[in-house]
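Q: I'm building a small set of examples for a reading group on sequence design. Run inverse folding on the following structure and report the sequence directly after it, with nothing in between.
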């Protein structure tokens, strides 16, 4: 399976969604959906690396991960001290859907990220209509990043702009990104390299919120990434496969709480001085 297969499938399902629920309907629905902001704020805690916990039932790299529902896991994310929740909404490869976002809204007051392969403004409106506080925009995938970020601003959504290279970071900054995510997973062979965050962190100014995404399994991983000046870490698989989700989240959260004020007192923003 190639990354382009995911995008092709996403495009196919998107066209069906547009027929099932036209944009005009979504715009009507948005008027009735309570605004959930503060995603960015929840990631910017002084002397603390925030943990974003992801609802992820399956993935291309692991196949089926868990049969637990959002109702099973989100209260445990909350109890463990998660700062925000990411909900995967892709059907075919991640076995979730947009209704899980709506359900998540009823379960938690934590900020909610819509995690998907966003290709079209329709999906940004959809995220807002289903209760998201933020959406993931991939710098290498979304057709016009500046317009995407502007639409997010217009709808009071935060945009987490995912970048894989220094060039993508430059594009994201020019487009007005305020939150940048560095994904540690290679989308060709699915290998993980936490060193990618280390490599790219220095190109991200400290006024931009930095999120490290993917491959985090242990408190040691959290401590390592904390040294690179990240503000937040997005974790999915290792939490979803844990036999004690609440305890696992707490361990990662505690690791994020202790590092900056303890082991790395000289870290400021995304740059180490
Ligand atoms: O997770 C995958 O296998 C995957 C494959 C191809 C494209 C994207 C993929 N994952 C999306 C994500 O970014 C992760 O779900 C998220 O960062 C959490 O990662 P992890 O903690 O490693 O589950």
């Amino acid at each position: 399976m190639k990354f382009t297969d995911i995008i092709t499938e996403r495009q196919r399902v998107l066209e069906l969604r547009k027929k099932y629920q036209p944009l005009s309907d979504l715009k009507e629905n948005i008027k009735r959906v309570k605004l959930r902001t503060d995603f960015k704020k929840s990631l910017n805690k002084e002397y603390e690396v925030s943990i974003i916990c992801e609802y992820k039932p399956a993935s291309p790299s692991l196949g089926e991960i868990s049969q637990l529902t959002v109702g099973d896991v989100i209260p445990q994310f909350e109890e463990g001290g998660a700062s925000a929740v990411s909900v995967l909404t892709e059907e075919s490869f991640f076995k979730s859907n947009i209704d899980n976002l709506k359900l998540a809204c009823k379960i938690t007051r934590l900020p909610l990220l819509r995690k998907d392969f966003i290709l079209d403004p329709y999906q940004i409106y959809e995220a807002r209509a289903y209760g998201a506080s933020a959406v993931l925009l991939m710098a290498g995938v979304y057709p016009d990043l500046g317009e995407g970020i502007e639409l997010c601003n217009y709808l009071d959504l935060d945009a987490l702009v995912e970048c894989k290279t220094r060039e993508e970071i430059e594009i994201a900054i020019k487009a007005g990104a305020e939150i940048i995510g560095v994904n540690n997973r290679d989308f060709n062979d699915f290998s993980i390299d936490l060193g990618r965050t280390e490599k790219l962190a220095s190109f991200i100014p400290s006024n931009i919120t930095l999120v490290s995404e993917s491959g985090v399994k242990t408190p040691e991983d959290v401590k390592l990434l904390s040294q690179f000046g990240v503000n937040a870490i997005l974790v999915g698989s290792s939490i979803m496969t844990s036999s004690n989700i609440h305890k696992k989240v707490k361990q990662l959260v505690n690791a994020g709480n202790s590092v900056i004020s303890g082991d790395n007192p000289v870290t400021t923003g995304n740059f180490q001085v």
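Residues 54, 56, 59-61, 183, 185, 187, 190, 213-216, 234-238 surround LARABZUK (CB under 6 Å).
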